[in-house]
Every structure is written in C-alpha cells, then in structure tokens.
Amino acid sequence: VQLQASGGGLVQAGGSLRLSCAASGHTFSGWIMAWFRQAPGEGRQLVANIDWSGGRAYYTDSVRDRFAISRNKFKKTIDLQIDNLKPEDTAVYYCAAKFRLADDYSYWGQGTLVTVSS
Q1: Residue 72 to residue 66: CA distance in whole angstroms
Q2: pLDDT tens column, 41-60
Q3: Do the Cβ atoms of 36 and 92 come closer than 8 Å?
Q4: 58: helix, coil or strand?
Q5: Which long-range contacts does 33-36 make (Cβ < 8 Å, 24+ apart)?
Q6: Residue 105 to residue 98: CA distance in whole angstroms
Q7: Residue among 66, 99, 64 nearest 83 (CA)
Q8: Are 34 and 90 in contact (CB under 8 A)?
Q9: What angle do CA 20, 109, 79 make, to 5 degrees?
Q10: Predicted confidence band at 28 (pLDDT cuts at 50, 70, 90)?
Q11: How confident is the model at residue 1 (pLDDT cuts 50, 70, 90)?
C-alpha cells in the first residue's frame, strides 16, 4: 500500500485548499481512509476519515464546518477540501489508511505542508 499526499501550500487566512491523496496497492474495500495533521510542536491529530466502501465520513469537531473529505473509487484518491482557512490550520497534513477493524492506521503518506498566513 502506498499513499501520496499533495496539494499543500501557503494560503492567506480565509482562503481554500484542496489536498489530495493518491492511494495504490489495494482495492481498499473495507478500509478507512483518513487525514491527520500535525502542527509545530504538537502531536498528530485525526482531522477526518471516510469509509472507502460506504462513504460515511467522520470529522473532529473543530473542523466539521470547514473541512470536507471525499473519495473517488475510480481514481483511488482521497481528497480533503479545506475552506475558510485559519492560521491554526497550519500543519503538515498526512493521509493514512487502515482496515476498518484495525485499531491503528498502518499506512501513511509522506505529508504535505499547509501554511496559513494571517
């Protein structure tokens, strides 16, 4: 399994970004795909995840109104649309994957940096 994240960059507060994660090496049926972020000096935080098969999504409360996760089964991509960016969204964003019943995410992409200027 390989995950390749892209789409990060420098954005002004209030702007938008769309991150994308290209997944390969599996059908991902029965898997959960996720986006995490790690801000400077902080631990890694789950932002959102999505069931690959059924499309059900989960969001952490702090981003629920501004972030949208989606997956494209044909392209094997997992996108994260981020609107109304805030300086506190500055972080390295990672995509990750696990089998639905697994406790931990076993596969990680390399991360893409999002920097939001005020």
Answers
A1: 20
A2: 999 999 999 999 999 999 99
A3: no
A4: strand
A5: 33/71, 33/78, 33/95, 33/96, 33/97, 34/95, 34/96, 34/97, 34/98, 34/105, 35/69, 35/78, 35/80, 35/93, 35/94, 35/95, 35/96, 36/93, 36/94, 36/95, 36/96, 36/105
A6: 5
A7: 66
A8: no
A9: 20
A10: very high
A11: very high
CA angle 25, 26, 31 (to 5 degrees): 135
Question: Which residue has tokens 């002004």?
Answer: 12
Residues in CB range of 81: below 8 A, 6 or more apart: 16, 17, 18, 67, 68, 69, 70
Burial (CB < 10 A; 0-12, 13-18, 19+), residue 118, is: exposed
Tokens 């000096």 found at: 41
Q: CA-to-CA distance for 29 and 38, rounded, in angstroms?
A: 27
